[in-house]
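Sorry, I am new here, but would you mind making up a protein's amino acid sequence and the tokens describing how it folds?
***
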Amino acid sequence: MASTITEKILANASHKKEVAPGDYVVADVSYTMAHDSTGPLAIESFYKITDKVFDKDRVIIVFDHFFPAPTVAGATMHQKSRKFVMDQNLSGFFTNGVCHQLLVEKFIAPGDVLVGADSHTCTEGALGAFTTGLGSTDIGGAMATGKCWFKVPESIKFNLTGSTKKGVYTKDVILSIVGDVRADGALYKACEFTGDYVKNASIASRLTLCNMAIEMGGKNGIVEADQKTLDFLGGRTGKIFRSDKDAVYADEYEIEVEDVEPQVALPPVVDNVEPVSAVEGKPIDQAFLGTCTNGRLEDIEVATRILKGKKIARNVRFIISPASEDIYFAAFEKGYLQDLVTAGATVCNPSCGACVGRHEGVLCEGEVCISSQNRNFTGRMGHPKAEIILASPATVAAAALTGKIVDPRDYI
């Protein structure tokens, strides 16, 4: 039977010759992950099952949503997770980056199965792995057993061809796709990204595509591993799976990326997507560059090219959170962070804090933030009457420069 890459990975992990969409399987998991916000509940569930994790090297805890702790309540949650890390002697405990970026940099390999207590765990599928988000109680079970049950998802193929025009980036492409497919258009589907655009894309750009699969309702996002993937992994090994040419898909989209313009997603939902021209001139109060969607070196580089030697608008706060310590150091060594700080930006430690409204960049009533993150839900970054507008790093940087939403192509 012809199979997709997602079906092959789940068959392999569940020790079956083949599986089909709709089948229920119990699969071995390569890694489990929880962060400071979801970890405490997962730990409670874990201790109702057992007192020892299935593998101390495959259970990962990351403090990224509110680190360093901004409140007593946050510090208390950290204390609970730290105790778990010490009691279980976990080797995978980190405070120096966004969980998904750290997993990509340090752990995930092609063919892996990763379950994480965070919806954007679909990001890591860009390395040719099956990666998906679960609730904290399910993660507690996976920490205890090293297994998880899945309903094998149907797959949707997104075949992306061509090259984007100057000033248009992968974030614009995925926003355009989400706007077309809608928030529930890929519900519980495997979102498989293919085509020459994906083949030519950087690993960082592939991560951006897979990151937002969940914003279409997807179970996972995935890109087949290739030589570029192996070069990125630097010797980390895995098992490469590829979709059969005659594999069956629930739907297929043919997308010529040359037709995509700079996009924005307007509040309060991610699929409320419009070309940037629809809101050009709208004043902003804050610009944010970072997150598991667009906090990588190439994103910081784009912002630097727009802002180097200039000053951001006086009425704007421009906050930058590199996605990991490695990215922070690389951006520092290239002088990007120095140029951005000189332009008036504030560079924070690698974290998710501003994205989730927990730390470093909370909005007050009536404020407008343009952000490179993945969600713009009501109240996500602070006050429920603040507005969050999603855009590419270039559009974010151009808005920080001018104090209003503008077409970034005029500033690159």
About this structure: The CA atoms of residues 290 and 321 lie 5 Å apart.
